[in-house]
Amino acid sequence: MKYYSTNKKAPIATLEKAVVKGLAEDRGLYMPEHIKQLPQEFFDNIDKMSFQEIAYTVADAFFGEDVDAESLKKRI
Predict the structure, then answer these.
(1) What is the predicted pLDDT for the residue at 58?
(2) Whole-angstrom Cα distance, residue 62 to residue 3?
(3) Which residues, at least 6 apart from 43, have a Cβ–Cβ distance to it below 8 Å?
(4) How far is CA 56 from the centre of its chain?
(5) How far apart, in whole angstroms, are the C-alpha atoms of residue 9 and residue 62?
(6) How far apart are CA 23 and CA 1, in angstroms?
(7) What average pLDDT does range 30-54 have in this prediction?
(8) By three-state DSSP, how is residue 5 classified?
(9) Integer angstrom CA distances of residue 12 from 34, 37, 50, 72
(10) Of 12, 31, 37, 56, which alpha carbon lies 20 to 30 A from 45's?
(11) Gap between the Cα atoms of 44 and 41, Å rounded
(12) What pTM was computed for the model?
């Protein structure tokens, strides 16, 4: 997945660059080009989920294929 600056004046970045730099060269925030839509089931069952389950589901949608499932689960 690629990440763009919210000020739209900096080059597209990888996840690594976005995390390491924090802010884009144009002082904008990095955002993923696409964020996977969370399924309705997530919202229907959020009250039954643990904090870690919620965090994993949201982070997975945000990071896409850039972070594999096992690594993401370990970090959460």
Answers:
(1) 95
(2) 11
(3) none
(4) 10
(5) 22
(6) 17
(7) 95
(8) strand
(9) 13, 22, 34, 23
(10) 31
(11) 5
(12) 0.75
